[in-house]
């Protein structure tokens, strides 16, 4: 998918720099052209010679090299690429990017570029969580810089937590999702649920929630963009139907489940809907009247069917990949990990929906992708970018040979 694409890889100084060798190898395997800019500190971890050997191209380091500038000026270097990738991206280079510094070749190239930039952070967990780094990440995200990772895990400094650089294959997937013009999901079928459900109390009142459908609809659009045939089962929302998607409109959780089952066999199901957990045991058939002096009516509730769990446990009809969302207001990761196990889905996307986050109805989302492999912490992104990144990960998963096929 990356054949002929030109990647300018900026290698900064961190222990994770050892992973760039594998990253270059994977990119070259796909016939992408890789050219490296190595920072002064990066050169303490990897040698120009190893990068040159793997890229089969010159490695650029010196801002004031007479020969480099005559062969390839820094402006040209920044423009002569389809994508700039910073890996590993240290706290220092993120700060310099956010501050607009141009005090070495890497930062100058990053300031001069008009091309998309993907950043793979790698640093100590405390450096990543520091307010200064998080503020820089926010600034860069607002400017449209794309992030992949960092992941959770054990670090070289013997600490554990977010800060590990994404694995080379994950970085390649992010690069593909940014550069792809192909349709890796062509021929695949996807089911997406979106929006709230409404559970009738009586003919005029209902139980519901604040979901706007923005996130679920964006996921349906992103999957369709990658070529999937998408059925979107949506609760009542004000957002427009995504182009090129079959939309089934429902109100209640029972109707959502029926529509999902009627969609037939799919390769992937993404349950982004905020389904009401409970419905009225027996909705009133006439408007419940307010009687003067009488106590408010007691509403007898009963659980709704769990659509995500039903799809996850559908036996031979189970989609190859089932992705749930976990909307939490406390103990986000622990609750989401538990939910993934209880509901039996493959991946769960955890998001904090505390009112202060503005996730419900807002345009941005901060999510954490949890799978059997661990937790990926994504930075705050627009809901469209969350959708594209998730669709890219889904495409990578579905186009990978299954273990049985790989063994053949
Ligand atoms: O719509 P937006 O305003 O853009 O907001 C997006 C969002 C916050 C709604 C979305 O990102 C999100 O988090 N969706 C899941 C909301 C939710 O109901 O989470 P939950 O933790 O209660 O449910 C866990 C999972 O089970 C979800 O995948 C949900 O779709 C599913 N579920 C829940 C109950 C039920 N009866 N059936 C289900 O399928």
Question: Judging from the principal axes of the Cα atoms, what is the shape?
Answer: elongated
- Beta-strand percentage range: 15-25%
**Structural classification:** alpha/beta
Taking the alpha carbons of the first and last residues, their distance comes to 23 Å
Q: Can you offer a commentary on this structure?
A:
With 408 residues, the chain is of the alpha/beta class. The chain has two domains: 174 residues, Flavin prenyltransferase-like (Rossmann fold); 200 residues, 3-Layer(aba) Sandwich (Rossmann fold), CATH 3.40.50. 34% of the residues lie in helices and 23% in strands. It contains 15 helices and 22 strands. The strands form six sheets. It has an eight-stranded mixed sheet, with helices on both faces. A six-stranded parallel sheet has the order 3-2-1-4-5-6, with helices on both faces. Helix 1 packs parallel to helix 2, helix 9 packs across helix 14 and helix 10 packs across helix 14. The mean pLDDT is 92. Ligand PMT binds next to helix 10, helix 12 and strand 17.
């Amino acid at each position: 998918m990356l054949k002929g694409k030109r990647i300018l890889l900026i290698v900064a100084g961190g222990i994770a720099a050892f992973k760039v060798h594998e990253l270059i190898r994977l990119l070259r395997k796909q016939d992408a052209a890789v050219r490296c800019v190595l920072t002064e500190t990066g050169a303490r971890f990897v040698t120009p010679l190893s990068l040159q050997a793997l890229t089969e191209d010159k490695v650029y380091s010196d801002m004031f090299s007479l020969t480099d500038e005559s062969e390839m000026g820094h402006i040209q270097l920044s423009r002569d690429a389809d994508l700039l990738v910073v890996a590993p991206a240290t706290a220092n280079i993120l700060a310099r990017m956010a501050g607009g510094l141009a005090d070495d070749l890497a930062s100058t190239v990053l300031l001069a570029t008009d091309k998309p930039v993907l950043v793979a952070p790698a640093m100590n967990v405390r450096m990543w969580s520091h307010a200064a780094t998080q503020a820089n990440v926010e600034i860069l995200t607002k400017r449209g810089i794309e992030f992949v990772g960092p992941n959770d895990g054990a670090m070289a400094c013997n600490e554990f937590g977010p800060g590990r650089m994404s694995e080379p294959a994950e970085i390649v997937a992010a690069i593909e999702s940014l550069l792809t013009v192909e349709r890796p999901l062509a021929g695949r079928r996807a089911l997406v649920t979106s929006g709230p459900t409404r559970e009738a109390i009586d003919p005029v009142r209902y139980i519901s929630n604040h979901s706007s459908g923005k996130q679920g609809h964006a996921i349906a659009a992103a999957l369709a963009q990658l070529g999937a045939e998408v059925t979107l089962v949506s609760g009542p929302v004000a957002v427009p139907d995504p182009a090129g998607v079959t939309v089934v409109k429902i109100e209640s959780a029972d109707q959502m489940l029926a529509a999902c089952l009627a969609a037939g066999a799919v390769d992937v199901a993404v349950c982004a809907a905020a389904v009401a957990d409970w419905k009225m045991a027996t909705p009133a058939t006439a408007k419940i009247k307010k009687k003067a002096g009488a106590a408010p009516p007691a509403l007898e509730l009963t659980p709704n069917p769990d659509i995500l769990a039903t799809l996850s446990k559908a036996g031979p009809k189970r989609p190859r990949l089932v992705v749930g969302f976990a909307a939490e207001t406390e103990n986000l990761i622990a609750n989401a990990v538990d939910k993934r196990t209880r509901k039996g889905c493959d991946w769960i996307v955890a998001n904090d929906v505390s009112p202060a986050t503005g996730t419900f109805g807002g345009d941005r989302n901060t999510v954490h992708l949890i799978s059997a492999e661990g937790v990926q912490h994504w930075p705050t992104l627009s809901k469209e970018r969350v959708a594209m990144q998730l669709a890219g990960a889904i495409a990578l998963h579905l186009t990978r040979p299954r273990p049985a096929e790989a063994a053949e």
